[in-house]
């Protein structure tokens, strides 16, 4: 059966309209060096079982199981089996955007529960549902802060995830009225907020805590500094489990909190999909992008849920829209809500504690081999260490043994000499003490050799 709706006559008519002789003319803008001139060398068709065996053989060539000790924005966590089972039910997978509350009570309630649980983590009154990922959530939070304060200058920590900063810069590139000020790293691995004293009327200070180096930022001090300058504090995170032990950013003075919730029941999936979250004070509710689901009662007094605010250009006039975000990543938000409900508050804290304990054990073991901590400031499940001389070669040898022992920070911070020999390690509850001991033993063996 053919699924191509265009007849040859349709194609020739379209080509005539655009002034092309044939279909190849449509690709003239692509450099010849980037074009494939010969057909793909594809194997003959296979049966389902033959294809399964073929894929398994290809997977075996990738080297089997790996021990990965890095995070840098995407973390591996245990996911209770009931979460993917429930999230894959057809009534959730096939649900569409809840425009009609009389038809979408289940979806609306799931989003409402998600908002409630995230607000408990962030310590702020309002949470939307939801954003694409942590990077776009940060960029939208920056634009939101500008709308609230009517100011254009943004102070951005250099210790925010480098990819997130790139997305932020892309968002702001068309804006001629925006000034970005980069705040450098201080000697303790935190953001140096002192340049704010010389910053005229900033709209916001953007931080990440724990930051890209794994260090908890001093949020109260940052909030005091930016509030004194008349701006808002935007606190972001890439690892929500850190909030299982640390005080919520909202309680420490953050005005807007955003971040990445991939750790909450979503598999890494080779890079996606992920889930962005954003919370804010009630004072700014009409400037938050995305959707808000509220709880109400119908004429019979029954509990119900509705879309309370949708400040998107699909819902209101474009001139009044605060965002063009056109998806609430609803199924990812549903999965995250199921995950948080499944492990509960006590499970969340216990998981966070296991992450911290294992990371500290790994950090201590690496320090005994010759690594030096970048900072004495508190970290969570990621930490940066100065590596002993020649570690780059050792790192390559460990890869041959299916061990990824950290991420070099020199690539991301080439202008900071202190980070030229520094590596970022990450440990979650998916690692055991035996896994860490095996890493340390492999390092000792390679260092001796």
Describe what is shown at a glance.
The chain is of the alpha/beta class and 449 residues long. The protein contains eleven helices and 15 strands. It has helices at residues 8-18, 48-61, 82-87, 90-93, 105-122, 134-149, 162-172, 219-228, 330-369, 391-400, 433-448; strands spanning 67-68, 126-127, 153-157, 179-183, 202-208, 232-237, 256-260, 276-280, 291-297, 303-310, 372-373, 382-386, 403-404, 407-408, 422-426.
Task: Provide the descriptors you would attach to this structure in a database record.
7-stranded mixed β-sheet, about 15% strand, 4-stranded antiparallel β-sheet, globular, about 450 residues, alpha/beta
Commentary on this structure:
- The chain is built from eleven helices and 15 strands.
- It has two domains: 67-79 and 344-448, Aspartate Aminotransferase, domain 1 (Alpha-Beta Complex), CATH 3.90.1150.10; 82-340, Type I PLP-dependent aspartate aminotransferase-like (Major domain) (Aspartate Aminotransferase, domain 2), CATH 3.40.640.
- The protein is 35% helix and 15% strand.
- The mean pLDDT is 91.
SSE diagram, text form:
Layout: H1 8-18, H2 48-61, E1 67-68, H3 82-87, H4 90-93, H5 105-122, E2 126-127, H6 134-149, E3 153-157, H7 162-172, E4 179-183, E5 202-208, H8 219-228, E6 232-237, E7 256-260, E8 276-280, E9 291-297, E10 303-310, H9 330-369, E11 372-373, E12 382-386, H10 391-400, E13 403-404, E14 407-408, E15 422-426, H11 433-448
Parallel strand pairs: 1-13, 3-4, 3-5, 5-6, 6-7
Antiparallel strand pairs: 2-8, 7-8, 9-10, 11-12, 12-15, 14-15
Helix pairs in contact: 5-9, 6-7, 9-11, 10-11
């Amino acid at each position: 059966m053919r699924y191509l709706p265009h007849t040859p006559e349709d194609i020739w008519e379209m080509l005539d309209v655009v002034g092309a002789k044939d279909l190849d003319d449509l690709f003239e803008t692509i450099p010849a060096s980037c074009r494939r001139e010969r057909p793909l060398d594809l194997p003959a068709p296979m049966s389902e079982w033959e294809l399964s065996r073929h894929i398994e053989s290809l997977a075996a060539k990738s080297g089997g199981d790996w021990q990965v000790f890095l995070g840098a924005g995407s973390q591996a966590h245990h996911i209770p089996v009931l979460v993917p089972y429930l999230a894959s039910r057809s009534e959730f997978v096939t649900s569409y955007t809840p425009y009609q509350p009389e038809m979408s009570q289940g979806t609306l309630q799931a989003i409402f529960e998600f908002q409630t649980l995230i607000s408990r983590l962030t310590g702020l009154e309002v949470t939307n549902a939801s954003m694409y990922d942590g990077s776009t959530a940060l960029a939208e939070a920056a634009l939101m802060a500008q709308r609230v304060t009517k100011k254009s200058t943004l102070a951005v920590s250099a210790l925010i995830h480098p990819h997130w900063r790139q997305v932020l810069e892309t968002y702001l590139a068309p804006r001629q009225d925006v000034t970005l000020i980069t705040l450098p790293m201080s000697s303790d691995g935190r953001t140096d907020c002192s340049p704010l004293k010389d910053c005229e009327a900033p709209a916001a200070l953007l931080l990440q805590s724990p930051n890209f180096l794994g260090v908890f930022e001093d949020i109260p001090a940052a909030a005091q500094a930016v509030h004194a300058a008349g701006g808002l504090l935007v606190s972001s995170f890439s690892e929500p489990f850190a909030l299982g032990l640390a005080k919520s950013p909202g309680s420490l003075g953050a005005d807007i909190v955003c971040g990445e919730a991939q750790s909450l029941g979503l598999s890494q999936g080779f890079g996606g999909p992920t889930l962005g979250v954003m919370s804010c004070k009630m004072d700014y509710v009409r400037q938050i992008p995305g959707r808000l689901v509220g709880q109400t009662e119908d004429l019979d007094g029954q509990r119900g849920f509705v879309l309370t605010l949708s400040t998107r250009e699909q819902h209101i006039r474009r001139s009044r829209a605060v965002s063009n975000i056109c998806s609430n990543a609803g199924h990812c938000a549903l999965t995250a809500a199921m995950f948080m409900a499944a492990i509960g508050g006590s499970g969340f804290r216990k998981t966070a504690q296991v992450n911290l304990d294992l990371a500290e054990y790994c950090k201590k073991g690496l320090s005994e081999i010759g690594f030096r901590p970048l900072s004495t400031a508190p970290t969570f499940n990621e930490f940066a260490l100065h590596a002993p001389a020649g570690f780059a070669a050792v790192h390559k040898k460990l890869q041959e043994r299916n061990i990824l022992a950290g991420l070099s920070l020199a690539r991301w911070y080439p202008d900071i000499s202190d980070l030229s020999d520094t590596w970022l390690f990450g440990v979650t509850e998916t690692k055991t003490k035996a896994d860490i001991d095996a890493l340390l033993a492999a390092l000792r063996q390679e260092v001796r050799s």
